[in-house]
Amino acid sequence: MQSKPKKLKARFIWGTITVCAAVAFQPVQPAELATLFTTPQERQVINSNRYKSEESTQTRPTPVDEETQPIQLQVQEEVTQQYQISGITISKDGPHTVWINTLAYEDGDQLEDNSKIKVMVGDEIKVRITAPDGKQYYATSGDMLEVTYLAPVEN
Fold first, then answer.
1. Mean of pLDDT values over 61-86
2. CA-closest candidate to residue 147, choices 84, 58, 61
3. Residues 125, 85, 132, 82: is their CA dihedral positive or negative?
4. Are 74 and 150 in contact (CB under 8 A)?
5. How many of the other CB atoms lie within 10 Å of CB of 96?
6. Which of 151, 116, 153 is nearest to 137 (CA)?
7. Which of the four pLDDT bands, split at 50, 70 and 90, describes residue 63?
């Protein structure tokens, strides 16, 4: 049998826990939840942006005076290059080499027209030429490759 002071102490502890639990788990209103972790300034920004439509948030370009800026049209012309792939050499220690129009180019080099060269090693060894406009052309040793792309013309 417990003594009276121990019983009173146990009742006091259980009573305190019950009161604390009741206070801690009081229902919170939805409006309080939405603004719980924001400052008044942050709430003002959130509330002002909440109901704006996408159209009203997009920035509209300011009209430009036609007299201040002349309109320049970029003129492009179709360019066609022919490349004779004379040979491809695969190297274990250094960069691969491709002979195009009797000139040697290493893997990753650029041609005169800024086309990029990449040697593709696999079942079949090929060279990929990427034209300045991004089009890709593939060929192997002995092929004649015709590359066509649009290039800007200087006025």
1. 75
2. 84
3. negative
4. no
5. 20
6. 116
7. low
